[in-house]
Structures are given as C-alpha cells and as structure tokens.
Amino acid sequence: MLQERWNSIKEELFQFDDEYTRYSFLVELSAYVSPHQEQLMQPQYLYEGCQSKVWLKLGQKNGCLTIEATSDTMLIRGILYVIMELYRDVPLCEIAEHPIPFLEECGFATQLTAARNSGIKGILDEINMFCARNQTTV
C-alpha cells in the first residue's frame, strides 16, 4: 500500500518538468490544509525544529496511522498535505519497516533551504519513530 501511494505521489509531482512549477504545485496543494485549526494549534502539538511553525498530531486507529498537521506557511502546508496523503491510514508496521526516502526522491532536497529540509526530515523521523514505538501495541 505505502509503496503504491509513494509511486503515485512521485508520478504526480514529476509531471512538471521544472522545479519552479513543482514548487507552485506544492503551494496550490496547501489549500487542502486549513491554516486555522484551533484544536490542533495547541502548544503540545507544536513541532520544534522547523523554520516555520508546524503543528503535528500523530495517533493510531486500528493499527493504522492517523495524522493531522498544519503550518503557518503555504509551502510547508503543501508538503504536509503530501505527507498526510502518503501516510494516512497506513499500518504502523508498514511505515516503520519501510521508510520512504521522501526528500531524496521527490526532488525537494534541491529546491528547499537546508533549514526547511532539516525540518521536514525531522517531521518524517518523528512519524517513523512514532510508528516504530507504537506498532507493537496494536
């Protein structure tokens, strides 16, 4: 399931030949993530380690990942949308056992600043650690 989703997402991202158009596409995707989610924008969900403000809430239901996220910047909300589409309702064990080389394969690593890449990598690491910690409690 996860690899199929990832392949589909990459195909969609790489339908654009140049990085500028791909960047613009991510900004467009930000419209699918509300920037004003009061129940999510609480101190306990604020992710430390991003240049932008990011709120991230991870959970599980029936052994699958639930994920809610938003940011104060459009670009990061677009990337969060892609991450949520990739991981939403995927079994925790599948995520923990098959990490996706997200930044390397989607082309963001060359488009974004080092600080943004570091923040996104941290979010992905947080997701993987959550899945690894919780997969046995299902």
Average pLDDT taken over every residue:
89
Sheet/helix structural class: alpha+beta
List how many beta strands DSSP finds: 3
Order of helices and strands: HHEEEHHHHH
Distance between the termini: 19 Å
Q: Tell me roughly what share of residues is in helical segments.
A: 40-55%
Q: Kindly provide the name of the CATH class.
A: Alpha Beta
**Dominant shape:** globular
Protein name: Fe-S metabolism associated domain-containing protein
Family: Belongs to the SufE family.
Domain Fe-S metabolism associated: 11-128
InterPro entries: Fe-S_metab-assoc_dom
Write the layout of secondary structure elements.
Blueprint: H1 2-13, H2 19-29, E1 46-47, E2 54-61, E3 64-71, H3 74-87, H4 92-97, H5 102-106, H6 108-111, H7 114-134
Antiparallel strand pairs: 1-2, 2-3
Helix pairs in contact: 1-3, 2-3
Protein name: Fe-S metabolism associated domain-containing protein
Pfam families: SufE (PF02657)
Domain Fe-S metabolism associated: 11-128
